[in-house]
Predict the 3D structure of the following.
Amino acid sequence: AQSVTQLGSHVSVSEGALVLLRCNYSSSVPPYLFWYVQYPNQGLQLLLKYTSAATLVKGINGFEAEFKKSETSFHLTKPSAHMSDAAEYFCAVTASSGGSYIPTFGRGTSLIVHP
Amino acid sequence: KAGVTQTPRYLIKTRGQQVTLSCSPISGHRSVSWYQQTPGQGLQFLFEYFSETQRNKGNFPGRFSGRQFSNSRSEMNVSTLELGDSALYLCASSLATGTGPSYEQYFGPGTRLTVT
């Protein structure tokens, strides 16, 4: 079985400040990890994914995430927040379960950016 | 390349009715998955179709069903609607051909279903 925990349903930062969104996963087999962003009234858009090639993954819009196996974490960061980054962010994990790969999503973190 | 499209975007139904939602995947994508998104439960996986066959299924009652056509377009049906079925229903397509987990999904804008 696999699970994802996103710490903090809301994160508030000032424009220009560091963004850190936390994601911890649980998986009995090597996982594949994803971060998605959802803007109001839209579907989810992939930011980045980890597929075991490199532990530091760079994504779109200046976001990156680091896979830390010892901490079972995959936190999302961005050095400097922009107003346009305000959105809902979802961490997701897929791992084999009886030969199928059903993705599990975290509950989401709403990023609020103050001017 | 056109993205994933879902129709209709908004729908209001009454308890006990049934509803059919439609999803057209990105051209060339043969895997289509459906999710239910609610404030209380978050994103929950309904089912995945690949080459007209249901390949994976989430933990939803049999009132929720789907199908996929030969052109990869998919429909989702909910019968005997309940108030708790009010949600945003998202469709996602993927290039996944086998059962590998590394393929990212491309989501449509969703269908907002309100049950009164």
The longest strand of chain A covers residues 19-27. Chain A has a mean pLDDT of 91. The CA atoms of residues 4 and 106 of chain A lie 5 Å apart. Chain A has no helices and eleven strands.
